[in-house]
Amino acid sequence: MPPTPTPDMRLYLLTGLGMCSLAALHLTGALHSRYLDRRGTPMLPVYVGVSAAVTVAGLLLLGPGVLWGSAPTPPALWRLASSVPVGAGVALVGAAGDALVLRLVHGGRAGVRRRPACAATARPREADGTWRPSVRDRRLPTGPTWTLAAAVVEETVFRGVWYDVATRADALPLRLAALALGVVAFALAHLFFGWGQVLAKLPLSVAATAAVALTGTVLAPVVGHLLFNLRAWHRNRPAPGTRGVAAS
């Protein structure tokens, strides 16, 4: 018997929401390159805006449980009390894993900045792979505001909206596969900075996913990602009087 389309429109909306969650970076790139790049608009604020729109759509379709969880998750007091220490643990695991992966990828030079994968106009400065930012690269905001905003919306999308969509699957293997897809999609959102950064963000993604599973709320991953990005910005911020790019 051939399959028949489901009459439940909410299922189609849920599918579209999940696809938008995983494709937030792709949507950002298309929107930015087609309409906003010519106006000099940096890409990071566009990414924050697209991710925020996906979060709002998730809240409208799925309700506040996307961010806060519902029964049988831990009680509200536990979620609040655990957010900071669990978030700090996420940041520590993410930072340690990030440094280890970059050290392995870059042959012991974890702090070396690599040429972004999308920066075709950048010119290598040294034989070891360091790079000189192009004019386009310098358009990326180097202050902490957008970096921290990106941390919040990435967590509301990947550990909020997508996590909720993934855990709605009936079969456990499907749930695990969907969660793994979200982990990888988050890492791929850092492809601008090269494949090394993609691999380096996997520990943070796994830790943040485990945190939301443990606490039942996106607060802990948000705290952890904020601390992680703040540390990354502090370590990579340009020297006074210069301009550069802070990878997060």
UniProtKB/TrEMBL annotation:
Keywords: Hydrolase, Membrane, Metalloprotease, Protease, Transmembrane, Transmembrane helix. GO terms for biological process: CAAX-box protein maturation. InterPro entries: Rce1/LyrA-like_dom. Pfam families: Rce1-like (PF02517). Residues 146-230 form the CAAX prenyl protease 2/Lysostaphin resistance protein A-like domain. The chain crosses the membrane at residues 12-32, 44-66, 86-105, 176-196, 202-228. GO terms for molecular function: endopeptidase activity; metallopeptidase activity. This is CPBP family intramembrane metalloprotease. It comes from Streptomyces montanisoli.
